Here is the input.
Amino acid sequence: MSLRFVIVAAIGLAACAGTRAAVTPVTAAAPVAALAQGAKTQWDGVYTVEQAKRGEKLYAEKCSACHGPDMNGGEMAPGLTGGEFTSNWNDLSLGDLFERMRISMPQNAPGSLSRQENADILSYILNKGNYPAGKAELPGQTEVLNGYKFVAVKP
Here is the structure.
């Protein structure tokens, strides 16, 4: 009876794996299609150096106690640069990241920063992640930032 269970389980897993394989290419192609349609990414220079400098000062005052002076994270807060950060936000929008910051940060006073201050801090995070600066400031409107995709690999 246990051999029968193993065979049924193996068939079930194989069926699931086949279904997953059929679905994965469609899901993986969606971000590529969005980029092909002209969606901006953090690789497109979506903030200015001046904005990142303002964000650096704000980060030092409001964020570094938890996320660390080098954005490596702390006991209770994740890092804001590096592989783990990149994989956590890959294929989401900068609007998603902005809203997470706007609503839940800083931890000791959530929602206390203005939209401009959050945009400046996000610019500094992008700068520290070695994403290029551009000629226009990162906006503080979620609906606009929803059109900016965060992608791990430069398109």
In short: Residues 1-34 have pLDDT under 50 and may be disordered. The longest strand covers residues 148-150.
